[in-house]
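Section 5.1 Outputs to date
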Amino acid sequence: MNVPRTARARIAAALALASLAAVGTLAALAGAASQQTTLVVQDGEAGNDARIAAFKQLDRLFEKAHPGVTVRRISKSFGDLIKTDALQLSGANPPDVSHVNQGLPDMGQLVKAGLLTPLDGYAKRWNWGARQSAALLALDGRVTREGKIGRGALYGISSTGDLVGVFYNKAKLAKLGLGVPKTFAQFEQALAKAQAAGETPIMFGNLDKWPAIHEYQTILLALAPRGQVARTVFGLEGTRWTTPAALQAARKLKEWADKGYFTDGFAGLGIDDAINRFLKGEGVFTITGTWRTGDVAKALGAKAGLFLMPSAVRGRPAAAIASGGLAWAIPAKAKNKELAAQYIDFVTSERAARVIQAAGDVPAYVLRGKLPAGVRGDALAAWAQLNKTGSMVGYMDWATPTFYDTLTAALQEVLAGKVTPEGFVKKLDVDFLKYHRQ
């Protein structure tokens, strides 16, 4: 659930290929490049205007570096992409390159059905492992033939980076006499002080159901060892959701709701409405993804900031829900696989990362150099920190094909007091064990 990560000159590419491919293969590529070829690229970012604009700019640069090639882009909403990808990729005419949602319910099932092309050969040829951390590549595209995520062959890689962090209103935090929290305890103290001052501590709406995943998992990652949660998301042997930390996080989520730390009427409030209220100056914090960074920067300017939720354990690096943006993959039935691989190599390169960053987005490739000011710089710094510490964890709803429905329903129930925190973690465990202990 990702609701909501160098351009090569033509001659340089040919030289690199010559050192790694047979002469016959190179000749075939040269012949193909001289012909008129349409490369069909499908993304799942419709509605994200800044990201689409960056992708279209990259399309034109790729065409310039590959005379005779025209990139035809298809943009779908995230919802439409995940509803139609299995049917489309199993058809006779899939796109040459397509975004695929990471996780077991989506990419895992597509790999299990034999609908995606392994990318390890291309990754080795162009050394993608030097561009992105092993942790990120595992999150974004490593899947076994059985559909288990986090290990196995590489089937996807992202151009952009997404993480769930804490956006905050600097002016309001300063008015409360507070700085950016350095510990989880300090964050809770800020919530209490904000409420006492008549502010809404956390702008939050859960009508769409999935936002509560961000609230709960962000708390969980502050309390639990990062590796424990990551292994459970990947469904590794011996893991389950009835851990002390998972129970403690459920209790903390309910406690925050009972204390009024969330927006009044959050159960009936859409996430876009909640975020828009934050953009208009309501609330002190909101917990959401960096895909909203551009909106926050535009609306609040210098008043906006972003930080990773600090750990409750002294000395433990902050961890966060994070992955690349939707992963680029090559359908098994794609007609232009070699050219598709060259396109993926291009849009995940350092040059592409600079285009993406200039557009105000977070590239998966961590660029060196001076960061921009404000919340955009905060987002880039947080992404670099997670890559450096390896403290990125996939979304909980990736855990089983049915886990999203189980998790979102159980979160609604625990927030409404219809199920206890103990009952909540047991519900998660039943779904989890049913799939992973077959």
